[in-house]
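Tip: read the tokens left to right.
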């Protein structure tokens, strides 16, 4: 009997697996089918390791209560490291930006992850981000890493319209709180994203950071 128009040629569990893979960013139907067949061909042990890894990510990974970096310990390893300087806080939009900057091996301070950026057209306001928690770290040193007073805030935001809007807002608010504000050097191409920049470019941007002025953005 011929298949109905919407009837899958795959067993239902395989079809569900393919459907779930197609929900991943950048994964189309053909790629999802290849991934599903990879799982099918794997041993049960290998497939269960994949399943357990996904479960562990959802069950064990959370945001650090201090900096909002992704972590499976509380606070995160960066916030508790005696080799870091908690008086310097580098503000980034997402955890993936933090990871890119860490890979340079240049920066030795701590971080604050905003979990986004201000985007009025997209409906994202300052209150939707972790900005209030950053200000709390400034005003209450006991809430910062190691209980240390913050001396410098470095704005490591993406050099695009939303990143500049966020930077302008933060520079204004931080100036009111009397803290030194710098930003990454603009060797980064306008409109680019930190996660795609090379280690060398990011290292130069950190080392060449500049004092932040309200008319800079």
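Filled-in amino acids:
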């Amino acid at each position: 009997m011929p298949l109905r128009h919407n009837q899958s040629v795959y067993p239902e569990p395989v079809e569900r697996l393919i459907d779930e893979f197609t929900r991943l960013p950048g994964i189309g139907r053909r790629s999802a089918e290849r991934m599903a067949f990879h799982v099918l061909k794997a041993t049960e042990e290998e497939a269960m390791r994949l399943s357990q890894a996904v479960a562990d990510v959802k069950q064990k990974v959370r945001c650090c209560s201090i900096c909002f970096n992704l972590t499976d310990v509380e606070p995160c390893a960066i916030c508790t490291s005696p080799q870091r300087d908690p008086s310097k806080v580098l503000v980034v939009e997402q955890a993936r930006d933090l990871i890119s900057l860490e890979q340079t091996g240049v920066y030795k301070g701590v971080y604050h992850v905003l979990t986004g950026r201000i985007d009025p057209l997209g409906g994202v306001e300052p209150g939707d981000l972790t900005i209030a928690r950053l200000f709390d770290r400034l005003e209450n040193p006991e809430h910062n890493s190691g209980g240390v007073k913050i001396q410098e805030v470095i704005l490591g935001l993406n050099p695009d319209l939303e990143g500049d809007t966020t930077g302008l807002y933060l520079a204004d608010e931080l100036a009111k709180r009397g803290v030194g504000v710098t930003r990454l050097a603009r060797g980064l191409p306008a409109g680019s994203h930190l996660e795609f920049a090379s280690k060398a470019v990011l290292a130069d941007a950190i080392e060449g950071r500049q004092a932040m002025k309200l008319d800079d953005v």
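The chain has a mean pLDDT of 90. The radius of gyration is 22 Å.
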